[in-house]
Amino acid sequence: MSHKIKKILKIVGTALTGILLFLALFVLFGSRWVFKTWSDLSIEEVIYHIGAPLTGTNMDMIWDYVFWGVVPVVVMVALMAIVLYLKREKRYFGKLLAIIAAVSLAILGGDVVYAAHRLNIVRFLQAESETSAFVDTYYVDPATAELEFPEEKRNLIYIFLESMETTYQDKQSGGVFTENMIPELTRLAQENEDFSGDTTCQSGAYALPWTTWTVAAMFAEVSGLPLHISIEDNSMDTQEHFFPSITTIGDILEANGYNQTLLIGSSAGFAGRNILFTEHGNYDIRDYDYAKTQRWIPEDYYVWWGYEDAYLFQFAKEMLQELASGDQPFNLTMLTVDTHFEDGYVCGLCENGFGDNRYANVLACSSRQVMELVLWIQKQDFYENTTIVLCGDHPTMDGDFLSDIPEDYNRTVYTVVINPACENELKQKREFSTFDLFPTTLAAMGVEIKGDRLGLGTNLFSSTKTLLERFDYEYVSEELYKNSELITRLAEIDETTEAWRERAVVLYGTEE
C-alpha cells in the first residue's frame, strides 16, 4: 500500500473516530443532563421536548444544557484531538484510534440501552403499534350529556398551579419531606374539599400518560382527554384547530353565557394554548404579549417565561373586579409559572426559609401568594357565588429535587375545590386523575350531570367510581399509551399545513 493511500486512510480513520467520539460523548452528557433535569421523564415527554419550539422557552434552561451537556463534550473532544495530534507519528497510532473507537461504541451502545430502560421504550413501541378501545369505550361525549345549570349561575376561578405536587408537603400531610414547603396550600386543602376523606394525607390527582406537560395537562383538565396525537405534542401551534369537534368546559360555559378569560404570564401561542382556549370557549386571551401591548409591563420586560407570578396575581385581582362588575357569570382561568423547573424563579417576594434550596424557597413563595389571593377573593362581594379550583397541571420535571423520594411513593398533583355549590357524597379518599377535574369542576359550580361522567372523567362529588377506582393505574396507563381510533378522529390533525411542514423539515429533515 502506497504511503499516500496510508496517509488518506489515516486521515479518514482519525476523522471518523473523532465523529464517533463526539457522538458518544454528546449522547452521554446530553442524556445525563436530561435524566438529571427530568427525574421521572416519560417517553411522551421526550417526544414533546424534542420538537418543542424555542419560542417562549426559559433561557436559563438552555444555558444549563449548554453548560452541562455541550461544554464537557467540546472540552473532551478537544483534549482528545490534541492527544491524537501529538501521537500522530507513533507506530501504535492505528491501535489508539481503534481503542478510542471501541470505547466510543461501548459508551454509545450502553447509553442507548440505559435510555431505553429508563424510558421503557420497548413497552411504548409495543403500545404504539396496538390500538385500544379503552378511550372509545369509556369516553362520555359532553356534547350529548344532560347538564342542568342552577338558576343563578356560579362564577369560576380556575388556577392551574405549575408543577404543584402533594409531594412537597410533610409526611403527615401526605408528602415526603420532614418540613412542609407549601403549608398554606396544605391548610387550604384541609379546610376545603380535596377528596381525601377524613385522612390528613392529601390524595391529589394522578397525571396519566399524555397529560404530563403543561399544554397536555391543561387539555386533560378542560376536556377529560389525553393529548395523544400523530405529531409532536407541542406542535399544536402548527394546526388551525385544536380538537375542533370536542366539547370542553369552555364550550359548555360559553353556551351558558359565561364571560371567559385566560390569564397567563407566558406567551399563549406556545404549544397552541391560544388555539385551545379561543376555539373552545372564546376566552379573552390575556397573556405576556397582551400585557406588553396594554403596557401592564414595560415593552422590553422579560423574566423567566415572560413575567412572574407576583404580576399575575396583581393582574388577577384587577381582572376579577372588572369581571365581577359585568352582568355575566365569569370564568377566570389562570396559570402560574414561577414553580416551573429548573429550580423555579426567585421573585422579590421570595424568602430564604429553606436556605440555599432555591426550588423549595420558590414553592414556599408560591404557596404564600396563592393563599393571599384566595383570602383576598374571599373578602370580595362576588365570592359568595364563586367556586375556586386549585390544581397542579402536572408533576414537576425538576429531577434532582425529588431524586431521593421512595420508589413506591405515588406522586400526585395538588388538588382542592373551595366554596363548591354541592356536598361530597363520599367521605372517603378517592383515587382520581386530572381527567376527573372536568366534570368535578362543573359539579362544584352547581351543575347537575346525569351519569356523573364527562370525557374520561368522573364527578368526584358523586359516588360514581373513577376509572382509577374501577381499574388499576397500570392498566389504565397501558391502555392510554395505545392508539385510539376515537382520539385520532377527534384530533383531526392536518399534516399538510405549511407550519407543520416547516416544523417537520427541522425535526426530520424532509418535506414529506
Describe the fold and architecture.
Helix 7 packs across helix 13 and helix 12 runs parallel beside helix 13. This protein has two domains: 126 residues, no CATH class; 369 residues, Alkaline Phosphatase, subunit A, CATH 3.40.720. By secondary structure, the chain is an alpha/beta fold. The chain is elongated, with a radius of gyration of 25 Å. Helix 10 links the parallel strand 3 and strand 4. A six-stranded mixed sheet has the order 4-3-5-2-6-7, sandwiched between helices. The protein has a two-stranded antiparallel sheet with strand order 1-8. It has a two-stranded antiparallel sheet with strand order 9-10.
Please tell me the total number of domains: 2
Q: Could you tell me how far the N terminus lies from the C terminus, measured between alpha carbons in angstroms?
A: 45 Å
Major beta sheet summary: 6 strands, mixed
Radius of gyration: 25 Å
Level-1 CATH class name of the largest domain: Alpha Beta
Strands, helices and their partners?
Layout: H1 3-37, H2 43-50, H3 59-86, H4 93-119, H5 121-128, H6 134-138, E1 147-148, E2 155-161, H7 183-191, H8 214-223, H9 249-255, E3 259-264, H10 273-279, E4 284-286, H11 288-293, H12 309-324, E5 330-335, H13 358-378, E6 386-392, E7 415-418, H14 437-444, E8 448-449, E9 453-454, E10 457-458, H15 467-470, H16 473-481, H17 485-491, H18 498-508
Parallel strand pairs: 2-5, 2-6, 3-4, 3-5
Antiparallel strand pairs: 1-8, 6-7, 9-10
Helix pairs in contact: 1-3, 1-4, 7-13, 12-13
